[in-house]
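Lecture notes, continued. The same structure-token format from the folding unit now serves as the input rather than the output. Read the line below as a description of shape only.
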């Protein structure tokens, strides 16, 4: 598979980019070089490689979700700019 100048023009149009003829030629060459390099992967024997979603093994490092006592309301509201009826008071966002 190779990229043509027409392909580059199409992608540039989708991205709403204006490219000069020199830029189209440059990008065509660069994209073809990338595809040529990526085709080397087709030559690798991956029959013994298990499919993965991550390169490194993933594990949950979060603590167990266990209920515990919460802070007293007086301590929670101590640093609030304003409080009313044991709740944070904030400016209205709707009129």
């Amino acid at each position: 598979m190779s990229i043509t100048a027409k392909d580059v023009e199409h992608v540039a149009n989708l991205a709403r980019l204006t490219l000069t003829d020199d830029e189209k030629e440059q990008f065509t060459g660069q994209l073809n070089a990338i595809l040529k390099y990526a085709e080397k992967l087709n030559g690798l024997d991956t029959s013994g490689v298990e499919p993965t979603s991550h390169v490194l093994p993933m594990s949950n490092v979060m603590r167990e979700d266990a209920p515990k006592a919460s802070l007293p309301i007086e301590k929670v509201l101590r640093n609030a700019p304003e409080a009313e009826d044991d709740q944070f008071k904030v400016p209205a966002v709707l009129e």
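Point for the exam: The chain has a mean pLDDT of 91.
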